[in-house]
Amino acid sequence: MAPTVAVDTNAFMMPVELDVRLFDELNRLLDGYEPVTPQAVVEELRKLSEKGGNEGIAASVGHDLATERCLILDTDATYADDAVVELAREGTAEYVVTNDQPLQQRALDASVAVIGLRGKNKLAITQP
Asked: How far is CA 40 from CA 7, 17, 36, 80, 84, in A?
């Protein structure tokens, strides 16, 4: 069975902000996977996309990626980071994709591997 990968808000914004080809990189790292994201992340991307500017553009692209490429899951948490951690802690996600250092640590503390930026535009896996 393919591992489940929970994608955080800032990961969806990487294609615009950091020129990272998110799903190409996930394909390179993992031999098949199921991308998921909490509803709270989709909502955060929607709100950020209304701001305009580079952040708004990145969030708009991220929102499209989330809704087109990921299974969107409901969680008890309404704050995006807490929702991602909830997926990790309950065993729904075997990987968390984020560049947020505190969130990376929370995922590792929950014994979930983290996929984050290494170098200019490549992703790498950190095991707990």
From this structure: 11, 21, 12, 5, 9
- Distance linking the first and last C-alpha atoms of the chain: 21
Q: Does domain 4-126 have CATH number 3.40.50.1010?
A: yes
Give the tens place of pLDDT for each residue, 14-36: 999 999 999 999 999 998 999 99
Nearest to 15 by CA among 69, 51, 80: 69
Does the predicted TM-score (pTM) go above 0.85? Answer: yes
DSSP string, 59-76: HHHHHHHHHHHSEEE--S
CA angle 17, 18, 19 (to 5 degrees): 105
